[in-house]
């Protein structure tokens, strides 16, 4: 959706276009479900995910390019930001090509002639938060830059969608623009990584054919306990830093959003932060499953479209991923 521009040169969102499937599959009807071990099947049943959206026979690059075209087709060429001159593709779970450029392929299919395209990669779900922070910085650093478009397509790495012990993957894509005078405005942001978790999850893609690719967690206990402890400490501190920079406290936050992984994750972070996670997140989790880096954009877009927020309200967006990347962003409506 497009939104009314804000005043001044503050960097905010110009427009968002989300691509979601009409067809959804119940998780217990996924092809791999019957072959899951008991613990894995119970995890899926208790995840809070009822169905996942499915867009068969399309790659993450296909979906990202379609999302950008949908975004640009709906734009007025005279709107703030005009024609974006920077394209950031948030890296998918697996690239469509090696040596080639998925980002430049999206640029070509979206006919963003003259733009500079590149990929923000290696951050998992947190890639979208890193991209909008980097896009804000690029626009602030170069007054001649017109606007930034960010895009991502969510597809599973191989054929399986169950990512034990994390979530169940659904299909979707988004594109969004950052422009001067856009709304909501990006008020404050923090992001961090811990490189020691770089190989906690991996896919052996060199020794086996594509249809046998499986996401492997090197240590479920390390994911559940050690990484969770890092997230508890870091996100708690980062939220305090972001709010302090904006000069507000938690009572001044109108809504808190995060990525959609499991319903228990919402409970974990609500208890940690003392902030309720907005129900729109759980609605999307139940219906679409985990959409990777798309989750926070979809949640934010639909929250804003719902009309419950007023100009000046603050929305806190948390984001983290199993590669040990964390981000916290404060948006002002």
Automatic annotation (TrEMBL):
GO BP of this protein: secondary metabolite biosynthetic process
Which UniProt keywords are given for this protein, alphabetically ordered?
Acyltransferase, Transferase
User: In this protein, which residues make up the domain named Beta-ketoacyl-[acyl-carrier-protein] synthase III C-terminal?
Assistant: 243-331
Q: Name one GO molecular function term.
A: acyltransferase activity, transferring groups other than amino-acyl groups
Offer one Pfam family short name for this entry.
ACP_syn_III_C
Q: Does the keyword Acyltransferase apply?
A: yes
The record's SUPFAM superfamilies line, in alphabetical order, gives: Thiolase-like
Positions in coiled-coil regions:
none
State if Hydrolase is listed as a keyword: no
Q: What is this protein called?
A: 3-oxoacyl-ACP synthase
The source organism is Streptomyces subrutilus
Q: Which gene encodes it?
A: fabH
């Amino acid at each position: 959706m497009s939104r009314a521009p804000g005043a001044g040169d503050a960097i905010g969102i110009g427009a968002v276009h989300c691509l979601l499937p009409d067809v959804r599959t119940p998780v217990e009807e996924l092809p791999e479900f019957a072959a899951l071990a008991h613990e894995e099947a119970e995890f899926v049943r208790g995840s809070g995910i009822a169905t996942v959206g499915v867009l068969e026979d399309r790659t993450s690059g296909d979906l990202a390019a379609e999302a950008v075209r949908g975004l640009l087709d709906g734009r007025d060429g005279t709107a703030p930001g005009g024609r974006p001159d920077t394209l950031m593709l948030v890296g998918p779970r697996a690239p469509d090509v090696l040596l080639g450029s998925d980002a430049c392929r999206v640029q070509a299919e979206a006919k963003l002639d003259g733009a500079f395209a590149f990929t923000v990669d290696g951050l998992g779900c947190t890639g979208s938060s890193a991209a909008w922070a980097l896009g804000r910085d690029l626009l602030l650093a170069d007054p001649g830059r017109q606007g930034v478009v960010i895009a991502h397509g969510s597809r599973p790495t191989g054929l399986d969608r169950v990512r034990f012990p994390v979530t169940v993957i659904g299909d979707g894509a988004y594109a969004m623009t950052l422009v001067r005078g856009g709304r909501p405005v990006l008020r404050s942001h923090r992001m961090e990584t811990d490189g020691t978790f770089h190989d906690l999850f991996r896919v052996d893609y060199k020794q086996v054919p594509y249809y046998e690719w499986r996401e492997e967690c090197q240590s479920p206990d390390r994911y559940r306990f050690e990484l969770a402890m890092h997230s508890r400490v870091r996100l708690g501190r980062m939220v305090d830093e972001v709010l302090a920079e904006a000069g507000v406290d938690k009572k001044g936050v109108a809504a808190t959003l995060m990525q959609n992984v499991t319903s228990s994750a919402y409970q974990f972070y609500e208890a940690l932060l003392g902030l309720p996670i907005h129900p729109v997140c759980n609605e999307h989790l139940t219906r679409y499953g985990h959409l990777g880096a798309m989750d926070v954009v979809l949640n934010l877009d639909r929250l804003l479209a719902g009309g419950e927020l007023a100009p000046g309200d603050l929305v806190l967006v948390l984001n983290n991923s199993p590669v040990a990347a964390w981000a916290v962003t404060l948006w002002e409506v």
